[in-house]
Design goal:
The complex is a heterodimer of chains A (161) and B (119). With 161 residues, chain A is α+β, with helices and mostly antiparallel strands. Chain A has a five-stranded antiparallel β-sheet with strand order 6-5-2-1-7, covered by helices on one side. In chain A, a hairpin with a 4-residue loop joins strand 1 and strand 2. Chain B has one helix and four strands; from the N terminus they run ββββα. In chain B, 29% of the residues are buried. The chains are: A alpha+beta (161), B alpha+beta (119). At the A-B interface, strand 2, strand 5, helix 1 and strand 7 of A face strand 2, strand 3 and helix 1 of B.
């Protein structure tokens, strides 16, 4: 398991992206009923939220093609995790639209978790974002490969519970 | 969360464990340039020994194209194709731990690895 912490300066708040390895029998794979085999997969979750306060949910990764909406297949797990971190930050409008946010503000620790981001509320987020001059109101600009920010754009990955 | 795979030897009534974990670290090695960026990868470890009592080397998997035989060939099937899934990668690495392989198997330039010792 690895936990990446993303610090947002305007809110003085840490967010987490957790990547964990699981094994389970999937109920459906590639839209086919389960064959009963145990599958191995990564599950990516984050404490970041969409601007409307809804959660991102869980992302199940069975191979390097299971990337966020709008991204190309990854070649390494580093690229895949960084793509998800970037996707979460863009969708949550945590960074300046023209900046490259995936590598500059992340850190990593293994086999640990923190509760520092608990208690986050959508109301505090919206008030901070409106008062901060460094946050752009059109935060999806500059990410031409990404779909627009919406709680409906979450990638439908097979096997996601 | 790491996955522990138990391998049971009926002949010896004993079991061994292989651990697969997904981690993020800055990697450093004497044969690699200094790189301060974080890499995310699978770390495969076991406390088991090979039949010749040698420990298994640590195995890192950064992508599904890092095949178990010297990163060049899969173990179960003689192919240089990347693994199609995390499941396929884990099964192939587990197979290789248990059964070992001869040197240069499938022309991969790998070194000899003995089967897992259960006695």
């Amino acid at each position: 398991m690895t936990t990446i912490r993303v610090f947002n300066e305007e809110q003085n708040k840490y967010y987490q992206v957790d990547v964990s390895l699981f094994s389970a029998v999937m109920d459906r794979v590639n839209n086919l009923p389960s064959n009963g085999d145990i599958d191995y997969y990564l599950k990516i979750t984050t404490t970041m939220k969409y601007p409307d306060g809804t959660s991102f949910g869980e992302y199940v990764i069975r191979n390097l093609s299971d990337v966020p909406t709008g991204y190309s297949a990854a070649t390494t797990f580093t690229q895949l995790v960084n793509d998800y971190i970037e996707y979460f930050q863009v969708q949550a409008t945590l960074g300046q639209s023209s900046s490259s946010s995936s590598s500059s503000s992340t850190s990593s620790s293994s086999s640990s978790s923190s509760s520092s981001s608990e208690g986050y509320s959508s109301s505090s987020y919206s008030s901070n974002s409106s008062s901060s001059k460094s946050l752009s109101s059109s935060s999806s600009e500059g990410y031409s490969s990404l779909s627009s920010s919406s709680s409906q754009s979450q990638a439908p990955i097979d096997g996601t519970n | 969360m790491a996955i522990n795979i138990n391998i049971y030897s009926n002949a010896n009534s004993s079991s061994k464990t292989i651990s697969f974990d997904f981690v993020g670290d800055i990697l450093a090695a004497s044969d690699s340039p200094i790189d301060t960026t974080v890499d995310y990868y699978f770390k495969v470890t076991t406390g088991a020994r090979q039949d010749n009592n040698a420990a298994y080397p640590l195995k890192l998997v950064r992508g599904l194209d890092e095949l178990v035989l010297n990163k060049q060939k899969q173990r179960i099937v003689n192919t240089a194709n990347a693994y199609s899934s995390i499941k396929e990668m884990i099964i192939d690495y587990t197979w290789d731990f248990i059964n070992g392989h001869s040197a240069n198997l499938y022309g991969s330039s790998c070194t000899l690895q003995f089967p897992m010792k259960f006695s």
